[in-house]
Amino acid sequence: MPAMSPDPARLLRSPEWYRDATRWTQLTLAEDDPIKFDVDEWIDVFRRTGSNAACLSAGGYVAYYPTKVPFHYRSKFLGDTDPFGALVDGARGLDMHVMARVDPHAIHDDAAKAHPEWVAVDAAGNPRRHWAFPEAWVTCAYGDYNMEYMPEIVREIVREYDIDAVFANRWQGHGICYCEGCARRFFDASGLALPQAGNSEDLAWRAWVAWRRERLTTMVVEWDRAVQAIRPNASFIPNMGGASLMEFDLETIKAHCPFLVVDHQGRHGVEPVWMAGRNAKRIRATLRDRPVILITSVGPEEPVHRWKDSVTTGPEMTTWIADGAAHGMLPWFTKFNGVIPDPRWIEPVAEGFDLHARLEPALTTTEPACEIAILDATTTLRMHDWNSRDAAEADEKGFCHALVEAGLAFEFVSDHAMTDEMLDRFKVLILPNALCLSDAQCAVISAWVGRGGNLIVAGESAMATEDGTPRDECGLAPSLGTRVISAPRGPVKNTYVEVCGDHPVNAGYEGAARIIGGIRLVGIEAGTGADTPFLYVPDFPDLPMEEVYPREAATAPAVVVRQTPAGGRVAHIPWNIGATYWEVQAKDHQRLIENTVRWALGGPSMVEISGKGILDVGVRQGKTEMLVSLVNLTNPMMWKAPIHEIYPVGTQNVSIAMKGGETNVKAYLPIAGCAAKVTLRDGRAIVTVPQIDIVEAVHLTWEE
């Protein structure tokens, strides 16, 4: 069962050309590249990495071709050359797909003087110089520059060059623009003045978020129409900039974006490796059927100390690519500057692309098939700007990491795209802290529980409506069988929860009477027939040390679990266990999350892994096949880039639940390139994986 790659020539220039564009090279040129870089060297890079598609700098801030559009700044080193055209011809000579990159986020002095309405304005009324290069000006993303002028450049590129699509970088703007045009358009749409800051409680801010979404969505439509008016099989592909589609109208994205590009180029700060695969899951939570690409930088991703023309370690690059690929993301690497003073990135990228190529045949014929879903709380996250969004996602990230440590595969479901059919794919739905949910969204979840679904609700989930208005009661209270008796409070210090009774949710704490509690707490009351495996220990001081002792007995529920009339199981954890675990990494919290999920499942997961190490597990299924991907995260640099070297893990036993009636069951290890022995026992297929370096998978096939 050797790895097979699709034939790029098969779909060249057809309406579905993108389905064979599965491994991408992006070259972002520097202004002096026309006289410094070597086109043939880059054609060789295309070959060496096994790329079948390329995204190449064309224009916008700097034109790398002989543009005729007024105020479209040509590279001062261009002369009579056409580096973009030469790269396009070279890629097409290899039967590669080609996308032209444009960047509209900045302009030069001549354009700014001729068209001051193109320049973004800050809150003080000053035109915005570029924060990193003050000789340039930041453009207004929501007005005529993007809506009228950039389509002229797009049409010129599409008309003059043999390309499949136009890709835009940094096109969404950089915060609120206070130019006259934005102020007027926003007032006409909302009747409000532009907000002064991102504040989820500010009506103007919430209106601006919605208005910005409408403007960006309109831009996607207009640019796509400009492309297709000239090349009907081509598309405009916006760089999504992150892992969620909350900034766009979904129906428009479905109509105009045949595939999606996520710009999460690598890790910075404290960020685990599994974040690569999380990108795929979050996009699938909204648009399940679209190909999704993950951009990986060959350099370190540090937002404060930026070294964009540098090289990170090979193991970091390859592992980031592999984790995304194992969860269904198509790999794309980006190199800034066409000169290659440090070529150490080429082989790691080639290795990552080869790992994807080995997994690709099975990835193509299967789709995600997990039992566990985490709710992607887009309704809540839309209330936050980029500065506060990371903290708003802490609860979800804590649950993700707890499940990764448990070896449990999981997916996401977007509350923005939630349907009965989508929920019915899963056995367990987790709401880590989905604060804002509409009555309709709560009704969809409650109906699923009424059909026997198993629900875990944590933090302040459903304690506010879709516009942020607080509720007196949790919107899912009837399904949970609990009642809120005191409003959320926090941050609090020195809190604890007490182990109460004998229940699967509090198993594994032998000898411990209590464990660390949360930082934000909601007071609840348990209904009839519920169990309370943990109780809140009433607050007590953390100083002076002589005063650090509880004054009262623990009586209020800190975890409530019950079985529903439909046979399902529900759990309510009314404190921010996810965010607390993400921040503190207390093993007791990971155990509580894992225990609750396994109790909700009511039995073994469809895939169980046993063996030393931490693995990011993915599960995909076809009619007569299953793919279990195993990414090795066992590394001292799992939490902090870059990985310095790979630490292989030894034997892993993979146990896969079978439906019954399967015959001729076989297993293949795509990375090792060999068959594996299958043992059928108690309705499960057992496969042993002898070693995993970066990634391995078990491709199980059978006959019915």
UniProtKB/TrEMBL annotation:
Superkingdom of this protein's organism: Bacteria
Residues in the signal sequence: none
Pfam family, one: GHL6
InterPro entries the UniProt entry points to: Class_I_gatase-like (IPR029062), GH (IPR017853), GHL6 (IPR028212)
SUPFAM superfamilies noted in UniProt: (Trans)glycosidases, Class I glutamine amidotransferase-like
Protein name (database record): Beta-galactosidase trimerisation domain-containing protein
